Amino acid sequence: MVEATELEVHDLAALLCSRVCHDIISPVGAIINGLEVLEEEDAEEMKEVAFDLIRKSANQASAKLQFARLAFGAAGSAGAEIDLADAEKVARGLMQSEKADLSWEAPAALMAKNRVKLLLNVLLLAISAVPRGGAIKVSVLEPIDAPTFRFECSGPSARMPPALGRLVPGDIARETIDAHAVQPYYTGLLSRLSRMRVAGTADGDLVVITVRPVA
User: Fold this and answer.
1) Which CATH number covers residue 57?
2) Does residue 2 lie within any of the structural domains?
3) Which pLDDT score, from 0 to 100, does residue 213 have?
4) What are 195's strand-pairing partners?
5) Which domain holds residue 137?
6) CA distance 189 to 41
7) Residue 77's pLDDT band (boundaries 50, 70, 90)?
């Protein structure tokens, strides 16, 4: 097993902030563009297009921020639990702007904060497994105090996320950790804190990512 290398706390915090900013800068920029169109155009048709752009972009920015709050943020005090229904809600909101369709099967239950954060971060890896769209089925298997997460990612050009090889296990000695790479690294950090292991298999157009407790 590769011994994980940990980032300095201040570097991790800065990179996660950069990641959140990277995710929301596009919809915020689109809102600004829509407002500029409203200021410059008199045609009702163009104004309607601008309003539609602003509406969709504002919803997208809100969904991304709500997801980030749960996936990257504190989301309660140390040792807190999070309702899986809240995790499903932010996941579905995020997926509205993604190419893949989401199905979610989980019991109605509270789960340890870091495990819920891990669940949502692995969802981001699952999205990267189907770059041309398809379907992602998320299953949370009981018992809740020692759960297994299963992500079935199917679609054309489905592929194993490269990050599962080095970034998630924490083998970063030969990696450059930037705002993009910090998310899978953080996923691995959460898995180690939760005493769970992330693994994946690929078979044609199906990629399966599993997260299981470490014995």
Assistant:
1) 3.30.565.10
2) no
3) 96
4) none
5) 9-213
6) 49
7) low
Residues 120 and 117: their CA atoms lie apart, in Å, by: 5
- The half-sphere exposure of 131 on its side-chain side, counting CA atoms within 13 A, is 5
Structure tokens at 84: 């899986």
Phi, psi for 82 (deg, rounded to 5): -125, 140
Give the pLDDT score at 73.
86
**Count: domains in the chain:** 1
pTM confidence score: 0.92
Per residue, the 3-state secondary structure of the chain, as one string, reads: CCCCCCCCHHHHHHHHHHHHHHHHHHHHHHHHHHHHHHHHCCCHHHHHHHHHHHHHHHHHHHHHHHHHHHHCCCCCCCCCEEEHHHHHHHHHHHHCCCCEEEEEECCCCEEEHHHHHHHHHHHHHHHHHCCCCEEEEEEEECCCCCCEEEEEEECCCCCCCHHHCCCCCCCCCCCCCCCCCHHHHHHHHHHHHCCEEEEEEEECCEEEEEEEECC
Give the pLDDT confidence of 122-157 residue by residue, as tens digits.
999 999 999 999 999 999 999 999 999 999 999 999
**pLDDT for the residue numbered 3:** 58
For helices 44-71 and 84-95, the axis angle rounded to 10 degrees is 140
Q: Is residue 195 part of a domain?
A: yes
State how far the Cα of 186 lies from the Cα of 71, in Å rounded to an integer: 10
Any domain includes 4: no
